């Protein structure tokens, strides 16, 4: 009997080990493989962004311009326009996508993004206030103002959404974000109408564009974006615990409030930096988490890694489309709105209740 049972048990263990391998190693390899493919696609797209634009430039001139071997109009276009906007697309796309993942995670609302929750409006409002009251016009000053504006709005919306609540209420946070964002946008519009100088300073920046024409501005945002992304990756396991419910997360040793506040800090860094250098760009933070989730699954760490790549892919693609479909170019925020509005309608139709798809 024992001799007959032992092989059976061994066979069962082999099947169990094989099954465990199938559900751990193979999916991870698959996820890693898909991520590598997306990274390669992003590298190709970023390179293509240097070659494609409203003005046709030969590949040789592009290479000479990048190597500083030519002093021509084409070289200036490459160095002063296409290269900075490509770098900006990489930073802003990653920042908004990761911020969207964080916002949807802590609010458990699949329709949440930095624009819907008023974070971009808060960053824009603080930049406008600095221009009018303090006379700030440098990008460094815009960066700090946008960061503090995004931080203030994030925390304010969070506390309004959790006021007199034992836990996060996705519906209250969403409504609070929409209301506060609309209020700040209305005040900002009134301020710009009463101040022609502020209107001139804001009318191009407020539309949202990657055409910053200065590499130093993009490099200025590297550190805050990097800090926000690192924070998002660090709290990813804790956010997975939070997805099970706050009570279970606490039972697993997760400090719920600390994780939520850390997420808000990362959101403020990411949205503030992105808004400061490119202006408010909507729908990236809404669409990318859903696309990334379909490719990576619900694991927050993989979701964040995929978002880091998918955000720039979408944003640079939208910028390239805007360059070539019109003579004077279409701003990237308009192109993302054309794509994002139908996606928002589709997602809204799929939502059966707040927080569930």
UniProtKB/TrEMBL annotation:
<dbReference type="InterPro" id="IPR037294">
    <property type="entry name" value="ABC_BtuC-like"/>
</dbReference>
<feature type="transmembrane region" description="Helical">
    <location>
        <begin position="87"/>
        <end position="106"/>
    </location>
</feature>
<keyword id="KW-1003">Cell membrane</keyword>
<keyword id="KW-0812">Transmembrane</keyword>
<feature type="transmembrane region" description="Helical">
    <location>
        <begin position="35"/>
        <end position="54"/>
    </location>
</feature>
<keyword id="KW-1133">Transmembrane helix</keyword>
<dbReference type="Pfam" id="PF01032">
    <property type="entry name" value="FecCD"/>
</dbReference>
<feature type="transmembrane region" description="Helical">
    <location>
        <begin position="173"/>
        <end position="196"/>
    </location>
</feature>
<feature type="transmembrane region" description="Helical">
    <location>
        <begin position="300"/>
        <end position="318"/>
    </location>
</feature>
<feature type="transmembrane region" description="Helical">
    <location>
        <begin position="259"/>
        <end position="288"/>
    </location>
</feature>
<feature type="transmembrane region" description="Helical">
    <location>
        <begin position="118"/>
        <end position="136"/>
    </location>
</feature>
<feature type="transmembrane region" description="Helical">
    <location>
        <begin position="217"/>
        <end position="239"/>
    </location>
</feature>
<keyword id="KW-0472">Membrane</keyword>
<dbReference type="InterPro" id="IPR000522">
    <property type="entry name" value="ABC_transptr_permease_BtuC"/>
</dbReference>
<feature type="transmembrane region" description="Helical">
    <location>
        <begin position="143"/>
        <end position="161"/>
    </location>
</feature>
<keyword id="KW-0813">Transport</keyword>
<comment type="similarity">
    <text>Belongs to the binding-protein-dependent transport system permease family. FecCD subfamily.</text>
</comment>
<feature type="transmembrane region" description="Helical">
    <location>
        <begin position="330"/>
        <end position="348"/>
    </location>
</feature>
<protein>
    <submittedName>
        <fullName>Iron chelate uptake ABC transporter family permease subunit</fullName>
    </submittedName>
</protein>
